[in-house]
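Researcher: Re-running this chain for the archive, since the previous output was lost when a drive failed. Same request as before.
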Amino acid sequence: MTDANRFAGTTLASMTTVLPHPLPPCENARIALFAMRRMGANGLGDARAAHTLFTAFGQGFRRPLILMRALMADLAGSAAGTIAIAPCCCARMTPAEAALLSILARVETAPDTARLLMTDLLGVRRVDGVLTSAAAVAAAFADEGRPVTG
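Model: Regenerated structure tokens:
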């Protein structure tokens, strides 16, 4: 085995450790993930995130966009530590991203599970405000015919 092959194998192994989850099969979850990644990396006013939501939702894009911005602001303001996000081009997800998408998928149907996931993600006990923001985002996606499923 050459040094290049050993290095490539190590990189792949470490990448699956850092990014253990594959992208979700749900297109709506991938849209939410892209918007979260863009806003997390480039700020709440990221134009590509807004364009993606405009493309996905058409004229009804404002509500999902504003609520996604509010969720991202609530997450940033409430987290006890950092929330790891991957670059937009990554074909895998961090555990935090997988948890966020699970929260969006379960906040209406399994609120206790969503609360536990949010508590673990943020590292704080009181997550009601952020959980409400997540519920609003999930409802906005569902109301426009794009429910986030896990």
